[in-house]
Every structure is written in C-alpha cells, then in structure tokens.
Amino acid sequence: MSSISTDEYIYFENKLYLPILIKILEKDLETIIKHPFKLTRPYIAKVESALSNIRTELKKTDVYITRYNMRLVKGKTNEDYTEYTFIKSGHEEYRKYTRNQLREKTEELMCTYITM
C-alpha cells in the first residue's frame, strides 16, 4: 500500500506538469510577439493571464511540497518514457510517464488555464 495519498499525487503532478506548461506558454508568447498578428493584445493578455495563474498555482504547490517534506525527482529518460520518483517522508514511489501521457495531460491543463 502506498504511503502517498490521492491528494498528494495532485501536488506531485502539479510539480511535474506546471513547469512544462510555463515553458510552453512562454515560448508561445515569444512567438505571438515576434510574428505579425492583426490583433496581438488579446492573445498576449490571455497567455499572460494563464501564466500568472499557473505561477500562482506552482507557488502554492511548492509551499505544500516543502511543508510536507515531499520531493519530485526526474529519473531516467528515453524515447518512450520518463521516470519520476515521488518522495514523501522517506517513502519512494516510482512512476513512468510516456511522452504521449505527458503531452496529453499538458494539453488538457493548457486548455484549463487558457479558459480561466
């Protein structure tokens, strides 16, 4: 039986996905700024708002993870998957995420934050 609760998995996954999402949206923002759009301000405002919300959520996640002695460690990476170790109070759990899983969940989160 795992010593990591379902609620704690949410924080581990936030710690995993939110930095990825920030990188993607920052690159998208650069692209929007560099390329000519007829109306760039609405796109820029939407992406900046999403980034602000994501950073706020990541900060809350970092506080929780620190407070409850949790750590996320990126392990082996190959063409098919990336391995992560979830550590909580000395207990370790290993999980593998395929590229497709990472992409799909990141895309799902992006839709959530963009529509906020």
From TrEMBL:
Name the domain of life. Answer: Bacteria
Q: Which Pfam families match?
A: YhjD (PF26325)
Name of the protein in its database record = ArpU family transcriptional regulator
Q: Which organism is it from?
A: Psychrobacillus vulpis
